[in-house]
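Lab notebook, bench 4. The sequencing result for the construct came back, and we need a structural model before the next group meeting so we can plan mutations. Quick request posted to the team channel:

Model the 3D structure of this chain.
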Amino acid sequence: MTSKPLFDGDVVIAGGGLAGMTLALAMDQAGLSVAVVDALEFSDQLAPTFDGRASALAYTSWRMFEALGVADHLREHAQRIEHILVCDGRPYGGDKPGGPGPHTLHFDRNEISEGPDGEPLGWMAENRRSRQALVKTLQARPQISLIAPARADRYEHRKGGIDLVLADGQRLSGKLLVACDGKFSRLRDQARVRTAGWGYGQKGLVATVRHAEPHNGTAYEYFLPSGPFAILPLTDNRSSLVWTEPDAIADALKEAPDAVFQEELEARFGDFLGDVRPEGPRFAYPLGLRYAEQFCSDRIAFVGDAARGIHPLAGQGFNLGIRDAAALAEVCGEARRVGLDIGAVTTLRRYEDWRKFDSATLAAGTDFFNRLFSNDIEPIRQLRGIGLSIVDSIPPARRFFMRQAGGETGDPPRLLKGQRLDAA
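Done. Here's the predicted structure in token form:
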């Protein structure tokens, strides 16, 4: 005799990370019954040591957070991004200061959003703060089933639906299973969906720093021979660093004594924001490119890093997952309203077609720029600098790149326009 499933509804989401929780809220707003399964208690993920990263939220992603109610819990912990400066890093070593080099590409939000209260280029928030806001929003939606801690083991198809089987043998039944279980997705492997990609032999060293001078909402992305060095503005005169180094150097810096780390930090950071001091723990994450051949299979959709993982130099990783969630929720909500099967291949192909071009463009772009800028060959350095200066001198080009990064090009889903899915 088969025991009663823990959940019997429309959508089962395997993975309660940032993308999975965002998708659950979007599916719920689209009128679908949802369950989210994660290996960790949702409350455990609020700890400051759980995830040291911070994520840039594109302005369309913030619109979606507002439409879902997440922004209400996140706004006080989020920092507006008013400017982005991209440049080759100034050489450092000896008595040479680090910091931004002379050739700069400047993105100013006033070019696409005027007025003191206009929409910024994006928002920066620590991942733990984003997670906290998402959990609070989920907990206010009792109709969403949160099942944790529970480890997803495998899926099994049945007539008209699909079951997610947990490690303890219990199961959740739905019409659609969504894999939000990361770049090494077990469910994607079970579906035999192939991926293409490679490691970069680099790690992203992540740390929070406090500096003497205000950042004025400016994000800096400059390129050093070892890879990109990003300074991303946080609240309270702090910034999040994403510092790319070869694996061995990144591991050594992560474990280095405080005095050694401080010296290496100052050499690269420069003094343009005054004295700078690290705050809190350091983290190191391996970097690579991984792209799924398909974004869907039989009654399964892949979202977030399960669909693709890219280099963080453009700060687009989480935004791609948010865009996935917006598109999939809209497609499934529309299918449900007209009486179609939300797990049917025709429904899921609409999602895949909507998301693949944007994903492929960003994956190829981040890979290209990481390879182009992660070297110190002088002729290439000179050409890079000239290229940045040329783009900086062409306002339409600057505006195009700002809108591309903001997720506003093409045909954005309704949530990315700030429109609720349950609106008449």
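The domain at 7-416 is CATH 3.50.50.60 (FAD/NAD(P)-binding domain).
Will bring this to the meeting.
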